[in-house]
């Protein structure tokens, strides 16, 4: 991935974090095989470890969808007592991963995730 492409993606991730209405506290783009492509995550979170966990979660979710035959995966959401994590495909081999505060509004997070993933997909496809 080119430096220009990385900078554009980081800009989108920064915008996600600074949006006061979405309560997103961390955002990154990872490859489906676990490589961290761009990040705006908290310093307390190990980006490489988080990326590999995202890839594992995606693999399990894809396998589950195949097993129950309900189509292609679009998003994975994990809700915890202290926030939400959302994984949204942002291209054939990349995923946008977001983490939120506990006060985040689920619908807004899903909407912001889809919007940002479309922008990231456009950037990545232009970089090929």
Any descriptors?
single chain, 128 residues, alpha+beta, Beta-Lactamase, five-stranded antiparallel beta sheet, 3 helices, 5 strands, 26% strand, Roadblock/LAMTOR2_dom, Roadblock/LAMTOR2 domain-containing protein, Mycobact_SerProt_Inhib_Rv3364c
Characterization of the model:
It comes from Marinobacter fuscus. This is Roadblock/LAMTOR2 domain-containing protein. The structure is a single chain. The protein has 128 residues and is α+β, with helices and mostly antiparallel strands. It has one domain (3-127): Dynein light chain 2a, cytoplasmic (Beta-Lactamase, 2-Layer Sandwich). Helices cover 47% and strands 26% of the residues. The protein contains three helices and five strands, in the order H-E-E-H-E-E-E-H. The chain has helices at residues 3-18, 47-68, 106-127; strands at residues 24-31, 36-40, 75-80, 83-89, 94-100. It has a five-stranded antiparallel beta sheet, with helices on both faces. Helix 1 packs antiparallel against helix 3. The longest helix has 22 residues, at 47-68.
